[in-house]
Amino acid sequence: MLLFQNLFSRSLIFAAVLAVAILPGCGGSDNGGPPTSSKQAATKLPDRITAADKSIQQLKSAIDSGLVRNAFILQEYAKVLKTQKPELKTLVNNLAQDATPKGALFKNLQNRYTSLKNQPELFETPLAQYQEANALIDAAQPANFNLALIDVVNVVADMSNGSLPRIESESKAATLAANRSEDMGSGSQLIGNPAYGQWSNHGGTSIWEWYGMYAMFRDLTGGRSYSYNNWNRNRDWSYYNDVGRDRNGNFRNRNVNAPKSKKYGTTRDYGVSKKSYGSASNERRKSTFGSNSSGSSKKSAFSKKSSAPASFRNRSTFSRGGFGGK
Predict the structure, then answer these.
(1) 69, 183, 217, 231: least buried by Cβ within 10 Å?
(2) Residue 170 falls within a domain, yes or no?
(3) pLDDT at 133
(4) Which domain holds residue 175?
(5) Cα–Cα distance between 289 and 189 in angstroms, integer?
(6) Is residue 326 in some structural domain?
(7) Distance from the Cα of residue 183 to its chain's centroid
(8) Which residues is 210 bridged to in the sheet?
(9) Would you say 211 and 196 are in contact if contact means Cβ atoms under 8 Å apart?
(10) Is 292 within 8 Å of 140 (Cβ atoms)?
(11) Distance of alpha carbon 101 from alpha carbon 91, whole angstroms
(12) DSSP letters of 187-207?
């Protein structure tokens, strides 16, 4: 209990630091406005690519400086889970890497940048390339990377069988009931996220395949594989699939096997009701990808008028001080 109290106290300090440290405008400026044609996009593209590189480097500095709050929580959760379940040490260590620039989430940003800069032939038009640059800049904002870690933290929390609480979400039992979802086992929040695996065609059926370092998730579910149709019908809520896909997905497969309907959680962190929870329109008010704007939000996600600080400080199961699980 003392460990959890200390962790909670330290998290409040990190939240306060984030409110000051994560400022808007990290992605550079583009005073010309969004392009309306591929010709205009081609002219603006070099500045956007430079801004993407700058954003990724600034994110790395923020992570290395300990300014991404959920990265800190992930590291602490991993320490606890490895003590509880030493047989999961290798898998947990792989997940904990996401709290560093060596993790799958950060490497996914780097890989997207490499494709953006060096493989223009992968994009249908310069406008598509420009849009990917804005999505990448958006994903590399420290506040948005912080949100992308929600799923990873909650996977570790669920593997603790409730001794570690989820963040920005009600308990596993509560969300499964609210969404009439099937319990798909450990790691299910990461299904569909291209940082952790891919959909592969097997005889006309799309099957989720984990990348090698996460293959143990399949072992933990008795070797079970999930088809897209089964997952789409029965999945629970996840941050990536219901909120962050547009900014965090790889441009080539962002819409491949995307879920056909939104799920909701039982908190109000991303909307004012269950009906609007995870609404794309709510996210796109802040998303530069959705608006094709300059790639940097005018307001920090941690500013007073943003929905994020309320959820981090007041409504999160983590920040309410509950480490007893649900």
Answers:
(1) 183
(2) yes
(3) 96
(4) 2-315
(5) 23
(6) no
(7) 21
(8) 197
(9) yes
(10) no
(11) 17
(12) TGGGTT-TTTEEEEEETTEEE
Residues of the chain with pLDDT under 50: 2, 8-9, 11-32, 266-326
Q: How far apart are CA 229 and CA 215, in angstroms?
A: 21
Residue 240 identity (one-letter amino acid): Y
DSSP-H helix ranges across the chain? 2-21, 38-64, 69-84, 89-96, 104-118, 126-139, 142-148, 150-159, 172-179, 216-220, 228-234, 239, 245-248, 280-284, 288-291, 307-310
Instruction: Look at residue 49 in the predicted model and tell me its pLDDT.
Output: 97
Query: Which of 102, 105, 140 lies closest to 22, judged by CA?
Result: 140
What 245-248 contacts at long range (C-beta under 8 Å, 24+ apart), as own/partner pairs, is: 246/135, 246/280, 246/283, 246/284, 246/287, 246/289, 246/290, 247/135, 247/138, 247/139, 247/144, 247/287, 247/289, 248/105, 248/108, 248/139, 248/144, 248/148, 248/193, 248/195
Ramachandran quadrant class, 136 (left: phi over 0; alpha: psi -120 to 50; beta: rest): alpha
The tally of domains found in the chain comes to 1
- Which residue, 292, 305, 310, 302, is CA-closest to 143? 302
Secondary structure (3-state) at 210 = strand
Contact status, residue 172 vs residue 166, Cβ threshold 8 Å: yes
Residue with tokens 């929870």: 277
Q: Which amino acid is at 297?
A: S
pLDDT at position 203 is 92
Instruction: Say how far apart CA 218 and CA 272 lie, in whole Å.
Output: 36
Neighbours of 48 (CB within 10 A): 25
Q: How far apart are the C-alpha atoms of 292 and 298, rounded to whole Å?
A: 14
**Helix 2-21 × helix 69-84 angle, to 10°:** 160
Within 13 Å of residue 61, how many CA atoms lie on the same side as its CB?
10
Whether 323 is covered by a domain: the verdict is: no
Residue 148 covered by a domain:
yes
Which residue, 153, 189, 158, is CA-closest to 171? Answer: 158
Instruction: List, in order, residues 6 or more apart from 126 with CB less than 8 Å away.
Output: 38, 39, 41, 42, 45, 120
pTM of the model: 0.76
- Print burial letters for 195-232: b (CB count within 10 Å at least 16), e (below 16): bbbbbeeeeeebbbbbeeebebbbeebeeeebebebbb
